Structures are given as C-alpha cells and as structure tokens.
Amino acid sequence: MTASGLAALPLLELTVVLPLAGLLLALPLGHHGARATLALAPIILLVTALLCIEIMWSGAPIERVAGGWDVPLGIALRADGISGAFLLTTALVACAVAVFQAQGGQDGGATRRSTFWPLFLATWGALNAVFVSGDLFNLYVALELLTLAAVAMVAYGSTEAAMRYLLFALSGSLVFLLGVALIYAGSGTFDIGLLGSAGAGDTAMTVAAAFMTAGLLAKAALFPFHAWLPPAHGNAPTPASALLSALVVKAPFFILVRIWFDIGPETSGVLMQLLGYLGVAAILYGSLLAMRQERLKLVIAYSTVAQLGYLFLVFPLAGAAQDLPWTAGTWSGAIFHALSHALAKAALFLAAGIVIEAVGHDRLQGLAGLARDLPMTVFAFGIAAVSIMGLPPSGAFIGKYLMLTGALAGGHVFLAIVMIGGGLLAAAYLFRPLRLMLLAGETQPAKAIARRRQVVPLLLALAAVGLGIAASLPYALLQIGRSLTATEGIE
Amino acid sequence: MSTALVYALCGASLVGVGLYGFITRAHLLRRILAFNIIGSGIFLLLGGAGSRQGAVSPDPVPQAVIITGIVVALSLTALAVALLVRLVEDTGRATLPGEDASRDA
Amino acid sequence: MNPALLFDVALAALAVVAALSAVAGRDLFASVAFYIVYGILIALAWMRLGAVDVALAEAAIGAGLTGVLLIGAWSQLHRKGATETPPGPSSAARLLAAGASASVAVLVAVIFVGLPADGAGLAPAVRENVAESGVSNPVTAVLLNFRAYDTLMETIVLAVALAAVWSLTRDELWGGIPGLRQHARDGGVLATFGRLLPPLGLLVGVYLVWAGSSMPGGAFQAATVLAAVWLLLVMSGAMDEPAIGSTAIRLTIVAGPALFLAYGTGGAFLGTFLGFPADVAGMLIVAIEYVLTVSIAATLALLVAGVPRRQE
C-alpha cells in the first residue's frame, strides 16, 4: 500500500469511531460482548498502527474538520506524533487487557459479564477521542465519557472508592470547563490550533489556563489530589485497574501538554515551578506509601501516584523557557516516560490479577514462594519492575535519561536528584513483593492459570523494555508536529 | 450594565455558592446538587459571553454547547445518584469517611 | 436602571438565594425542592438572554428530569434512613470555605468583566453558513451540523451513562425491572392522566423535532417530553418499566447513536466525516433527529428509573 493509499482511508476518524461503534454493539449483546470486542480489538490496533505509519510517512500531522466546517465554526481532529504514540500505546494495552479478560478472567457475576465490555470500549473510544481532539469543549465531552466509564468500572470493586473517584473527577471537569468558558469568552473559539497561533495572550488567558490545569490535576491524581487513586485502582477488577492506571490518568496529562506546549499561554514561571514541586512531592510521598502497603495492588497503585509525579517535571524543565536547546529532548523524555509507564503498569496489574486468581488474595505476606508455581507471572512482574525503576534498557530509562539531561543542562540540580532518588525508591517498593514471591515459601496456588493468559503481562512488560531498545522509531514519531522548536535529543 | 453582564455575574456567584456547598456539606446528595449549581453557573457565564453588547443576536455556538453540557450533566447526575443509592445500601451511610486511602483496603 | 434590567437583577438575586437555600439548608427534601425552583429560575434567565433553546433544555432536563431523579434518590434514601444531614464543620471552617468560595467567584467575575467586550464570538460565522446547514434555527445548525461531532459524542455519553447505571445492578437482579411497581386507583387523577398523556405527548414530541429545524426545539427537548410521558405513565400505573434484559429495549437505546455514527463514518469514507451535503442536509438532519429522539427518550426515562430492583 502506498502513502496515498493510506491517506484515502479515514484512519484518524476510525480510531475514534471503531471503539464507539463497538460499545454500541456490545451494549445490546450483553455477555456476548466479549466475542465482539475480541473481533474488533485487533482491527482497531491495525487501524491505529496504519495511522502512525501515515503520520510518519507524511512527516506532518493528519488534520480533519468534522462536517467539513473549518475552524473556528467546526471541530478539528488532529493527529500529530504524540497523538499517534498515545493512540498506539492505548491500542496495545487495550488489546492485551481484552485478550486477558476474554480468555476466562474472573468474570464477577451476571451484571459485570454483561456491562464490562461496553464500558471497556467506551474507555478506549473516549481516550482516543481525547488524543485526536483539537477542540477544548469537545475535550470536555470526551473527558466526561471517560469519567462515566471509568467510575462504573471502579464500582464493580468498591462503591465507596467509585464515589470518591466520581467526586474528584466531577470537580476536576467543572474547574476545567470553567477555564474553557473563560477562554471562549475571551477569544471566541474553542480551537487549540487557533488559540496557539493567536500568540501568548493576556493575563485572563493565563488564569483560564490555570483553571483548566487545576481541574486536570484532580483528574490526573497529582499530589495532593491523589487520595482517590489508590482505593480506586487498588480495588477495581484487574482489567479495569490496568486500564485506569496505565491510560486513564494519562488523558488529563495529555491535555495539559496540549495546553501548555501547543496553546502556550503566557507562561507563568511560578505556575510551572509549582507543578514541578507537586510532581516532586508525588514522587516522594507515593513511593514512601507504596513501601508501607501490605497488599500487592495497593503497592502498584501508590507506585502510579509516584510515577505520575515524574511527568509533571516536564513543566518546570521544558515549559518555562521553551527555546532552550535541550527542552525538546526533555519534553520527549516525559512522553517516553508516560508511554513506558503505561505498558509496564498494565503488565504489573495484570500480573497481580493472576496472583489474585491463583491464591485468592493479594496480601504480600501470603505470597512467599509463589515464583515456583507461577514463574512466568513473577518474571513478567520483574521485567515490568525494571521498567518502572527506569533501569536500562527500558523505555522509562530513555525517558529519565532525556529528562535528567535537560535538568542538568538547565541547572535544575534538585530535580535531577529527586529523579535519581525516585528510581531508588521505586526499586525499594517493588523489590519487596518481588523478593517475597521469589523467596522459599509454601504458598500453594489454589487454581492453575492458563499459560496463554500468563503470557499477556509478560508481553506488555517486554514491550515496555522494547520501547527503550528500539527507541529511535517512537522518538522520531513524537517529533512530528511537535510545537517546541528546539532540536536536540537522541538523534 | 447589560442583561448579559447581570447573568454572567450571577453565574460567577453561583460557581461560588456551589463551591461553598461542595466544601462544607458532607451529605452526598447535597454535593451532587452543588455540582449541578456550579455547572449551571459556568453555563450562564458562557451564555453571558455569547450575548454581550455588540452582538445582534445571542451567539448560537455557546447555546449549542450549553445544551450538550446540560445533557452531559444529567448523565453524570444519574450515575452519581445510582452510585449513592448503592453506597447507602452497602454501608448505610450517605457520606464518605475520612481521606485515609490505605484504610480502604 | 430601566425596569427590564431591574427584573434581571431581581431574577439573578433570586436564583442565587435559591441556590444558597439548596446547598445550605438543614432539611434535605427542602434542598431538593429549592434546587428544582432554582432550575426554573435559571430557565427564565435563559429566556431573558434570548436563548430559548437553552431555556427549554434547562427547564426540561436541568430542572425537570434532574428534579425527578433527585426526588427519587431522596425517597430511597429516606426509606433507608440516610437523609439525616450530618453535623457540618465548625463555624470557623465554614467561614474559611465561604471566604475561599467568594474569592473564586470574585476572581471569575473580575476576569470576565476585564475581557474585551467586542467579542461577537462565532455568531457571524454561523449566520454566514446557516443557509448551507439545511436548517434555519442557528442553534440546531450548530448542534446537528457545525458541531455534530460533539452531539454524536453526547448521544453516546447518554448510552454509556445508562450502561454505567446498569453496571450497579445486583447480580441476582440482572436483566430485571427498574423501580417499584406503581399501582394507581381506577378513576384517580393519575389514571386519567395516563390515558390522555401519551397521544398528547407524542404530538408535542413530533412537533418539537419538526419545529426545531426552524424554531426553538429539537431532538433533546422532544425526547425529554416523551421521557416525561413515559415516567408519568409508569407513575400512574398505566405502564410498567421494561426489563433491561429485553433486547428490544437495548436496541432502542443504541439505534439513534448507531445511526448517527454510521452516517458520519459513511461520510468519512466518501470524504467528509459527518458531512451533510447542503441540498439534502435538512432532510437528513430531521431523519436522524427522529431516530435520535426515540433513543434519547428511552435512555432518559431509563436513566431516571435507575437500577433494576425486581425480577419479572
């Protein structure tokens, strides 16, 4: 197929349309939705991969306007390199989760069997809609679609955790919407591209952007808005935990990157510093609490609180002075970190899910010696842990390396120390469950888990490492349509 | 002072009122009310922006997105209410306990 | 100050007072009642702003359906003794919260007032293109054509909200019927209502969709009227809620969004995602709106009915 052949297909639209069509199909199908999802998931993965190829091939973002109405009247859909990278990572994780769950995961009862698949596909569709949207109000609608599906999936595990999550998510969306309303009041458009080309803007725009940012922080669970995350991710059913921790919390981060790097309101250095320090607090606090948890899924959930902190270091490192030569590398590093974390975190939660299915609980003290009976799962956990710690050759290592280079070049020694320290802390909290499972002990799995399911987290963990080994391709993808002008990185 | 400005300022006040309710009230049904009040306050602000002086007729784009927003708000309210009823059935409480996450395990 | 502006100021003040009563009152049922009054005042405010479509949506959905939903929630909580308001925070904490909330309100107001007042927004762009949109009501043109993508997502949001509510069903009741069976006395007011309403409601619904292309109205407002008829029929005992296990009911829920999505995707293969050719746009939009109306009406009614509480 040639480049023009690819361009003739509406790949960009299909990445959003297909999961949404799937959910409309799965809703009436009830528990037969599993089969429909399994048939559809590889098609969505293929379409997403083709879209990435099209973006690479053309070397420029793919842009469409829905209904053929030009902005600002219409709504723009735009897939640049970072969209492609997030879409593809989402497709990989979602396919893995679908295969894992459809092949006989613990189904819960009749209700979960009949409602899980529409909610799963709604999550996928909403994430994709966020990644290609060029319009602030459209982003609001996509975010709320995501909230509905994600909260409902948490409620399978704990109504209380779901309610807490809903309160945070709703306050977040409303504060975001307040910012969007002020933007429209001031500029007469919701279009990100037009807002970006309109120039730096004034104080009002910065305040509006600050409102949007505050709302998105609540949804991204950045410290101190993290309280909802561990109970929600720690008590949701396995496939939901994987989707939520790997992907759902990245959607608000993605929008923050769009706001501060693509629209680029008159950057307030203080605000960027603040985001960075909250990131630092998240790394330290999340890691320390992860060390103190007695349940495997809570260790992994608190690890998400910590790892999300790294992403926000991009704002003080690359947000305040975008014209420095190393900022593009730092920016790419943060995105690498987000993608790598998505793959590794999904692997950890699926591995934990296998442990829970096998022994019936996830209390750390009762997992000693599990490696003897579940070697592949414990191995997958270990590989994913290497990635979370940011050791070479994982994708997270590339991410941390790029960010560290930027931090040192920019004189942010404190942030550099925190990044290195955070890696050591991650090693500490992940080594604890790993050591227990590898230790001689007498834990006997009550139930055998099929190898074809155990292999799923292993493949995800290997993908997280592979992201580091074959880094140049995703790195090149990320650079397409990047709004930062400076070029220096690992080319 | 114009009609549009009056209602935009009303919208800003409603955001404040809703926020106050959300912070101070623990009963979850009241918090759901507070969310809806904040939401309609934001919509008034947006609507006020769409019909300021100089405009021949009110801007239809904010009107359309507000209608979308009202439907989205209803969807979220429906889920919140159903979740609240289920929470009361499960725990007997219509409030959330303190914020210590690790205790939820 | 001219009398009209005086009215505006009074209405705005009343809305704020109603909102305060809803959030700060002691009695939970009174709060719900105040919220419904508040919704009606806000609908009036939209009339004053010349946004009749929004006023209709706010009255029907914001005050009406949300009100029914909240009253339903209150009565279920009341039955379980969970309507007692827990003691609030100390007066110092309340004062602090009031200060913080007021500061946010003032900040928002100051920013808003400071914005350039010349912004006509997108009104001129809509005026220029409305002739090509197939409908003459500019709000409908934005909803179903210029920003059809938002509206498509919104119809999917409704369907997903219903799936989310249903996901809270207890396993033994999966596929069952939402709500409690209502019995009406023969010859009672509700029973008479039950006979008269369906034809009337249908007529109003059909009219609102048709009118929506040139006047205020449209699929969402029409669907709310139909959903209200549905709810009244159930309350009067003339009809029971359907079982959510019914394939017919689930197909009804997804038919509208699915048709809209399929139409949009077909357009994407032909060149324009969600594109409406100007010469047939009006016909296509009304056709899609009728199917949407049926799906949205069923979805709204079932959203208000909530999770299944009994088996067939």
TrEMBL record, chain A:
The chain crosses the membrane at residues 6-27, 39-62, 82-102, 114-133, 139-158, 165-185, 205-229, 241-261, 273-291, 298-318, 338-359, 371-391, 411-431, 455-477. GO terms for biological process: ATP synthesis coupled electron transport. It comes from the Bacteria. InterPro entries: CPA3_Na-H_Antiporter_D (IPR050586), NADH_UbQ_OxRdtase (IPR003918), ND/Mrp_TM (IPR001750). Pfam families: Proton_antipo_M. Signal peptide: none annotated. It is found in: Cell membrane; Membrane. Its EC number is 1.6.99.5. GO terms for molecular function: NADH dehydrogenase (ubiquinone) activity; oxidoreductase activity. Keywords: Cell membrane, Membrane, Oxidoreductase, Transmembrane, Transmembrane helix. It is a multi-pass membrane protein. This is NADH dehydrogenase (Quinone). It comes from Lutibaculum baratangense AMV1.
From TrEMBL, chain B:
Its main location: membrane. Keywords: Cell membrane, Membrane, Transmembrane, Transmembrane helix. It is a multi-pass membrane protein. It is found in: Cell membrane. The chain crosses the membrane at residues 6-23, 32-51, 63-85. Signal peptide: none annotated. GO terms for cellular component: plasma membrane. Belongs to the CPA3 antiporters (TC 2.A.63) subunit C family. This is Na(+) H(+) antiporter subunit C. It comes from Lutibaculum baratangense AMV1.
Automatic annotation (TrEMBL), chain C:
Keywords: Cell membrane, Membrane, Transmembrane, Transmembrane helix. It is found in: Cell membrane. InterPro entries: CPA3_antiporter_subunitB, MnhB, MrpA_C/MbhD. Its main location: membrane. It is a multi-pass membrane protein. It comes from Lutibaculum baratangense AMV1. Residues 189-303 form the Na+/H+ antiporter MnhB subunit-related protein domain. This is DUF4040 domain-containing protein. It holds the Pfam family MnhB. Residues 13-79 form the MrpA C-terminal/MbhD domain. GO terms for cellular component: plasma membrane.
